[in-house]
Amino acid sequence: MTETPSPLVLDLSHMPYRADSGTGARARIGAIVLATDHTMEAEWREILALDGVAFHVARIWNDAQITPDTLAALGAEIAPATRLILPNDPRLDAVAFACTSGAMVLGEDFVAREVHRHRPGIPVTSPMRAGIEALRALGVRRAALLTPYMQAINDRMRAHVEAHGIAVPAMGSFNEPDDLVAASITPDTLLEAAIELGRSPAVDGVFISCSSFRAAGIVALLEQAIGKPATASNHAMAWHALRLAGYRDPVPGWGSLFAL
Questions:
Q1: Correct CATH for 129-232 of 3.40.50.12500, 3.40.50.2000, 3.30.565.40, 1.20.1250.20
Q2: Residue 235 has pLDDT above 70, yes or no
Q3: End-to-end CA distance of the chain
C-alpha cells in the first residue's frame, strides 16, 4: 500500500544564496602523498592551519621498502593522482609531490611534467626541491643531512644537493629501508641525531630529509640547540608550497624559515 505524502507547509525550491571563493581563498594547494605515509598530512594540518589556506590530498600506491627501484616506480602514479585533486575546479595554486627520495630519483623535471599532464603550468614542489630552496633562503652553504635511507640513496642524495651548489660535509642515517619504520622513529631521536650533526663546525645548517620523519615540530628546538638554521622535508615543502601559491606572510612558531 502506497502512503500519500503529507502536503508541504513550506516549499522554497529556488532559494537565493550568496557564494564566495570557498576554502583556500588565499592559497589552495594539492598534495600527492605516498600510500604508506603516516606523517605528511598530520604535519601539514598543523603548519597550514592558516586563515584562507587549504590543501587537498591524493594518495599513490608505493612499496614500503625504499630502494632506487621502488622509488622509480612512483613515476607512473603521479599523473593519475594529479587528476584526482579537485578535477572540476579550475583553481589550484600549487602541487606538492610528497616524497623526498622519490623526487630525487625521478628528477624534478619529470615530476613537474607528470603533474602538468592534468594541471598545465601549475607550480610544482617536492621535499627535495623545497629543501634546497629553503637552505638557499636561509643562507646555508654547508649542510648536514639526516636521513633514514640505505647507502645507495644517501650517496645519490648527497650528490644531488651538492649539484645544486650546497656542500654536504656531514651526513647521518638510520639505514632503515622500511618507510613504516621510518615513520615510527621518535621526534626526540631525530632531534638528538640532528643536534649531533648540526653542532659540527663543518656545517652551517641542517636538513632532516624524509617526509615520513616527524620532524617539522622539532625544527625550532633544533635551531635553538645549535644556533644555526634548519629545516625538514614536510617543513620545507609547506613553506615552499605557500610561497608558490602566493602566500608570503610569516608563520610564527615554525623556526627561522617561516619567519623570512
A1: 3.40.50.12500
A2: yes
A3: 71
